[in-house]
């Protein structure tokens, strides 16, 4: 599917989370980093945006980043 109009996933390194902002609301996938280990410990999508693949996009971005980090 075309995602050209989909909001961007942003990496907030200081806040240790990946976010997507939708109509002023934030969906997030938070993580903790312990040495070489990254643990995703929380994902939240506003109820009105559930079922649109937002959580999957956040997870994919986070896992891609973790792989690049080794």
Explain this structure to me?
This protein is of the alpha+beta class. The chain is 23% helix and 39% strand. The protein has a four-stranded antiparallel beta sheet, covered by helices on one side. A hairpin with a 2-residue loop joins strand 3 and strand 4. The protein is elongated, with a radius of gyration of 12 Å. The relative contact order is 0.20. The model has no long low-confidence stretch (mean pLDDT 91).
What is the number of E strands? 4
Q: Would you tell me the overall average pLDDT?
A: 91
Structural class per helix/strand content?
alpha+beta
Provide the helix percentage.
10-25%
How many DSSP H or I helices? 1
Rg of Cα set? 12 Å
Keywords:
alpha+beta, 70 residues, 4 strands, 4-stranded antiparallel β-sheet, 23% helix, 1 helix
Brief synopsis:
With 70 residues, the protein is of the alpha+beta class. It has one helix and four strands.
Helices and strands in order:
Layout: E1 10-12, E2 17-22, E3 25-34, E4 37-44, H1 54-69
Antiparallel strand pairs: 1-2, 2-3, 3-4
